[in-house]
Amino acid sequence: MRVVVTGAAGFIGGHVAEAMSGAGHEVVAVDALDRSAAPDAARDNWAALADRPGITLVESDLATDDLTKLAEADAVVHLAGRPGVRSSWGPGAVAAERDNVTATRRLLAACQAAPPGRRPRVVVASSSSVYGSAGARPHREDDPPRPASPYARSKVAVEHLTARAVEEGLAAVTLRYFSVYGPRQRPDMAFHRFIEAARNDRPLPVFGDGGQSRAFTHVADVTAATMAAATADLPPGTVLNVGHPEPATVRDAITLLAGLLGVRPRVREHPPAAGDATRTWADTAKAERLLGWSARIGLAEGLADQVRRHRDRTEHAA
Predict the structure, then answer these.
(1) Does the residue 69 lie in any domain?
(2) Which residues, including other chains, have CB under 8 Å from residue 247's CB and lie 6 or more apart?
(3) How many domains does the chain have?
(4) What is the spatial distance between Cα 109 and Cα 161, in angstroms, rounded to a whole number?
């Protein structure tokens, strides 16, 4: 199968491109390195993909370039976008609109313009941020969106564009990712920052008091769900939560990391970030039913994996 993976120099995209190639698919890895939110990490991921057989690298800006060739595939896994709730305020809102909404609109249009019978299956990445904060039960896919940041609003817009493309005949599905972590996290993401701070005897920067909880989901589980969605015969318009069903607090995660690193954590609290959810919580019954997928990696195991591979990469780089 020929698979286009957009955002392939990113955290999730790099894992998905590698896994697709490892499964024997012909992969076209697409990214715009100069638009990356973490340029150094993106260049490292890009270089790693260049060394893998079965992967063709294409540098392309989805918001401006001709995307006709990208639609010549069996499946398009659209992971490119501007991440981050905190960075989406102020000037960041323009970047979120451009790299999330405009880019997705143009990519979906290119896929729709392919000849009938040759249009690719499309998997579109969304976010648990569209829900806002969870209450007394986990969020289900039919819960109404309550976006609380420009980033979250851009993802709601992405979902609306995808739904419209489905109405016009495109076989597209949407995955709502929950708090993804694991090896090769961007440097601005929480666990990467915590690990670096603890290893260098610096206070761990925490937004809020650490009591907020998240459905922390290891990138290997997210990759498995994404690959399944790209290859399964899902009904067009399907929306699926991709998250670990057991939330944990940021404090819990810090305690686990401290034990793994053999340190006594020092925390520096910062004001809560505008738009951050107090709790994310995923109901994954639909993904289990339609994909046979559920998150299998618990937080303790997943953080041990991230710490181990973080050490390996930093020691090798040194």
Answers:
(1) yes
(2) 134, 213, 214, 215, 216, 279, 280, 281
(3) 1
(4) 10
Catalytic residue among 131, 151, 177, 181: 151
Residue 274 covered by a domain: no
Tell me if residue 181 is catalytic: no
**Do the domain assignments include residue 76?**
yes
DSSP class of 132: -
List the CATH number of the domain containing 147: 3.40.50.720
Span 82-90, mean pLDDT? Answer: 95
Note the pLDDT tens digit of each residue in 290-317: 999 999 999 999 999 999 988 887 766 6
pLDDT tens digits, residue range 103-138?
A: 999 999 999 999 988 999 999 999 999 999 999 999
- Beta bridge mates, 180: 217
In a domain, 202, yes or no: no
**CA distances from residue 121 to 73, 146, 229, 234 in whole angstroms, order as listed:** 8, 28, 10, 10
The whole domain housing 289 covers 2-178+218-242+282-296
